[in-house]
Amino acid sequence: MSTGNSDAADPHDVLGYLLKHAHLQLTARTDEALKPLGIDSKDFGALRVLAHRKPASQLQVAQRLGIDRTTMVAILDVLERQGLVARRPDPEDRRRNIVELTDQGVRTCAAAEAAYRETESAFLAVLGPRAADQFRRTLRALLER
Q: Does the pTM exceed 0.85?
């Protein structure tokens, strides 16, 4: 059924479309920037959480990232094979694994952080610094509701 208003059919006017596709573009650019480090944006998210917290359980990292446990285990399996993280049984609850960055993981995370900052800055450059800062504040306000 057509409303007769062709402008209403333009997905570029729908906030969900705009947010989704901006996210997809930023993720693609981030993945490309992180490729030389042997990681992608999902891996970087896990490394970043681990770098900014005391040793955490796999579940805590998954919750912080907002992903399911199965996906978290798969990400950590890859990072562990690459020597970027180490898992060990939690001394307080042997059913849980504690995850920590290795020395190589710390170095990779630092390099990834720099690559990400550069990528994000280039992505937001079209807005200019003031508008980019306002964009971040606006998104945070929407997410804090």
A: no
